[in-house]
Amino acid sequence: MFVGDSMTIGSSGDYTWRYRMWRHLATTGSGPFRIVGPRRTLHDPAADAPVSLDYADPAFPEKARCHLAGWGEGWLHMAPLIEDAVREHRADTLLVSLGLIDLGFYTDPEQTAGNVREFVARARAADPHVRMAVMPVIANIRALADPDFGAQCAHFNELLAKAVADLSTPASPLLLASEPAGWDIDRATYDGTHPSEHGEHLLAAAFADALHQGWDVGGPYAR
Known about the structure:
By secondary structure, the chain is an alpha/beta fold.
């Protein structure tokens, strides 16, 4: 199950990094897998709502479009939803990319880290053996232009790494993915935050590497 914010749900006309990850898993001998989740749409800027089905590749299978992601949603919003989502959709692996929107609008680094821990606890309430790969916050144009906000993002990433280390167990392992290699906002994003096609590949590759190195799932990412 993909869990994320606007970078994960994507916008009308996007491929999304979810699509790139599906293609990767489908072509690297990962064995049988299902992508699950309660949502399937993209964000529609014209409607300012998650109602678009306009994926860049219309052949993206409908069942593979599943996710739990939302424009403007963060750890704060997903923590109350994750228990029911994991239980109902029987998700055993979560790929999570959250935090930027929390820090930008809702919570400070310590509060955001508290919501990470709440998220993990609620996911485990649904499945004590669920495993999670978590992406650090990737600096966007605001973080680069505003030193105070950039410092908050860096501090949260330190707290996130500690939470992952503290909470990981043999029964329910947590992985901290590496920030995407070569992330340059001029190439990796189309607006300073949201991934371009190049950025979609970088995000998928970071998660693919974490799964392959941590749990021997799939193989090295190839574009």
